[in-house]
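job 3f2a | input accepted
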Amino acid sequence: MIKHKYIDFICIIAALLAAALTVLLMFNGKNSIVESANTSEYANKLFDNTRVHTIDIQIEDWASFIENAENEEYISCSVEIDGEAFHQVGLRAKGNNSLRLTKEYGLARYSLKFEFDQYLDGGNYYGLDKFSLDASFQDNSYLKTYMVYDMMSYMEVPAPLCSYVWVTINGSEWGLFLAVEEPEEAFALRNFGDEYGELYKPDYRSLNAENADIALKYIDDDPGSYPGIFDNAKFKITRADQERLIQALKVLSTNENIESAIDVDEVLRYFTVQVFVMNWDSYLGYTGHNYFLYEQDGVLSILPWDYNLAFGTYALGMTNPIKDPNILINYPIDTPAEGSVMLNRPLYHNLMKHQEYFSRYHTYFELLLSEYFENGRFETTLRRTEQLISPYVKKDPTAFCSFTDHQVAVDTLEQVCLLRAQSIRSQLEGEIPSTIRGQAEQPKAKVDASMIHLEELGDFDDLRTSKKRQEAALNQINKQEA
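job 3f2a | predicted structure (482 res):
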């Protein structure tokens, strides 16, 4: 039996150890999210996609923020989400070509990023560290990104949560945006559990450079040869982390024992959707970026990101962009990029050299077609979401398009997807060639998509016509601030 005189001493020591452990868990590396917050609770709050949420950004000088948006520098603001206030939240504009072109066309509707722990250690929204607001740049339907993430989730690919929000600035209406969970600590914890691995967002340094690292090619054993990956790590990484990833790329390059380095099943499911949605602003395109790379225990998987230019609407940086809908909607699933690109994308090309993986890839297309498109799930989701957001699009003061153009874009997106599904069904059954060479040899073997006008999904002309609308919304806010 412990004597009474020691009990107080033991209790004090136990309390001190408990306090020290709590601090350690709160501030040690990845577990920086406040422990009292349920890290999955945000999924049922902001990312409840059965309704349109509200976000009011409270900021002193919105005009100044817009003027300097291209610098992508964080400022502090307060954010009221569905009536609940959060203070000292980091806010900045985001984007690549969308950011540049928004500035170039003299517009004001930028995609935005919120970081809750930018100024407050452990700051979070019910466990969420960061989310973004997608402005639907060159997406008159407002649905491209939402629908692709729905497809990815259906195919059990870890994808960001998303929902629609009505945004106001200091109480003044700004527009309808898509809130998207940013892949960082909370995303990793939600998808991979407490012992999650490393997360990267590979990106090029120069579009004209070789960018072999973001193409996921093995270069050598020096971590310094992979700046496009390691300079874009989402968590603090060690030399051991770098060595594991490089070893995985080395195994991928040999194309032997590939499942020891690649989560083959996840990667095949990812590419099934990626190829279906004809997204060339991606790993399978000229740029080779717009994806997240996840590594755990030396095994790599690829995660989805950025789909406002999907469904055949990407043309930036391409010398002779393809605009013929008959070519785009029938684009072959087995050679989803021209040879010069395909040979430099080992995560796709090397896997498809294995008959087992190639067959499984086709099996996943069969699954996507039969269970998502051909049974009506796609149309139900599309139309239900359109009905949800339609009243907000109609009154959106900064919209890139008119409400009529939006309705046309939704119809066009539906037609594009259904025709794409029809073409891929015919490719799987051998009625339409599934390679670029095969289609060149049989140019008439295609689903007729000549009635489709892809520019109706969003084009540069929309940017020009939206300038006055966005200027008026900005001026209204400036008057209220004055």
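job 3f2a | The mean pLDDT is 90.
job 3f2a | closed
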